Amino acid sequence: MTLRQYPSGAVVGKAEKTYPRCSVILCTYNRRNSVLTTLASLRRQTLAYEQFEVIVVDNGSHDGTYAAVNAYVHAGPKMVALSHENTWQVRCLVEEQNGLSYARNTGVRAAIGEIVVFLDDDVLAHPLFLECLLKSYDETGADAIGGRVELRWEAKRPHWLHDELLDTLGYFSPASTRLRLSPTQEVRSCNFSLKRDLFRAIGFFSPLLSKRSSSPLHMDVVDLCRRLHANGYSLWYEPHALVEHRVSAARLTRPYFVGRAYWQGRSEILAQYADTQQHQAVMPHKLPDVLRAALPEAREIARIALIDRLLLFFAGKPSSEKVAMAMAQARKWGHLAQRLAFVERAPAELTTPSVFFVRPTEHDLVADLLLQGLATQHIRVTTSIADIPLSWLWRHRALQGNATGILHIYRAGAFVLASGERQRFWFLLWLAKRWGIRIVTSDTGGWWQSASGLNALPQRVFERALLRQSDIILSFTRQPDQLYPDRRLRRRVRSLTHPGFRALYSDTPTRATAQALLKLPRQAPYVYLCLATHHNERELLALLDAFAEIQKRNRHTLLLLVGTAHDKQQTLLQRIAHNPSILTYPQEPTPQDIAWYMRATDAIVLPHFAQNTAGMLEIAMLALSFERRIVVPDLPRFRGMLPPRATAIYDPTNRASLVSALQAAQHHEFSLKPNDKKALEARTSWSQYAHRLAEIYKQALKV
């Protein structure tokens, strides 16, 4: 039998390669002798060597661990050709970034087995351990299994160490027979396993909650179990998958138990922080709110110290009860210390970024869908309306040059800020840049891009200045060179595909019902819709001229103008008053109203002039989701983004071209293909968009 280190699953000898069924991941840090003992116990497994591999991950040790493990792996007779069945498959990797979760995640990414088994570097595996574990997977169909953990005493057990305290040392034996764990039960960190594919579904270990050289946290496995339970996966306990956890003399002291309880308290508060659903409610960031949240912890500490521990002392209770009470007090101290630590800085060791999302208004359909999609990606997002809290910037400032926070400004041109508010916004943005916070801006277009006169100039200037300050610009376009002539801006652009809105409104009426509600004439053969709120008067007048040409050919055609333009409208109102085929609905429409208008019409018209920045793709995508024809200008925000059979494209420099496009829309029927319907489904497409955005956030932190 020969032990060899092999790269990428290679096998010594010329036998045909067989992939192991399970990968045992053994992470270690500065415990050379201990990890060698654990390796020796794995070498004695009764399971055939071809059925498992061992991956040792050295987490930056400086005691010669890596060299010692390699020497042990290469020890034995030097036989050149051995069958795969007689070759023990071992790899030794190095993860320089300190933290048990970093090491475990490295091991998972390198593993090739169907099942990933995690052991601590101070356990001794029973010879039947892996054989019993695989048998349990086969018989139960479990997604994850925790094995039994007994204690191996390396020093005399103290008299005060009661059985109820053994869990602190890793003991785990909830039953004498195999059972499925309830949603409130977790496995032990030193002996657990799960199917490797599950990491894709629930994510990897959180570095925020794992042990590091500077802080002995230990909630990463608890967090993983909670995610498994939350997603409906089955966790089992197998008593025959046995390991012994070595208990050294250093751990059999009262300070060790009290210190463990303190870090348990800190871990619990960090776990609450890492929980996306509880983040804003449980983790206040302003000092008065933090103090109010910490007050119950302070009261509990005072009660334990001044009442409970004194009563135990005078009553002459056993030492085990005194240790337990001291641990309870230390755990509360951990809660309090971690809550106060959040005032100074948010944790940096997160698997997902912390995002502050600044939106222009409270009611914005696209912003709401985006935030819902980010929630499915477990991104912690705090929102505000056109404001940036100084406290958030302070807590998420860069740590040792590494960015920890994302400031996402959405649709900046829609911000309506007074002079003083604008100055404050720019000051906070300057602070964000100085403190190393990454700035991401969504450029979705808007009415201000094509507004005539000086009324929208401040908004255009504000938006352009913000784009120049951004680290990343999110844009829906296939032609960033046309939309952003500035090369510096183009280098920051990330072009995205706009999600759809199909099935977002399940209660929208039929076409006939919608037309009856809007009191449209029954004889109207074709109805155009224009959302006037996204256009200026000059654009709408051009549309009226083109519509007049269409009426000469079909006098029953209707045009609906929904909302009002953002500039002067005297001329527009006069023109509308003289044409009964133009119906106006001046009230600002809600998303539900727009759905009704979409049902009642045949085509959506976007009457823009030849300005490269003009247009909003979301309006076209909304029409496409309702299977309506779209009349769009040949501009960068639309080119290549819509299916040709659904669009009538016109030259924005030529009114005759717009007339032709309006006419063409009447003579082409359009319906979505099954693949198109699937791609435009709101829930799926926004979730996919949020996944892409989460990846962009992570890239921004590395800029």
Structural description of this entry:
This protein is an alpha/beta fold and 703 residues long. The chain contains 24 helices and 22 strands. The strands form 3 sheets. Strands 1, 2, 3, 4, 5, 6, 7, 8, 9 and 10 form a 10-stranded mixed sheet that branches. α19 (570-577) links the parallel β18 and β19 (582-585). α9 packs antiparallel against α10 (319-344). It starts with a strand and ends with a helix. 41% of the residues are buried. Residues 1-16, 79-83 and 277-282 have low confidence and may be disordered.
If you average the pLDDT, what whole number results?
86
Amino- and carboxy-terminal Cα gap: 49 Å
What does the main sheet amount to? 10 strands, mixed
Alpha carbon gyration radius:
32 Å
Number of helices: 24
**What would you call the shape?**
elongated
The fraction of residues in strands falls at: 15-25%
What is the strand tally? 22
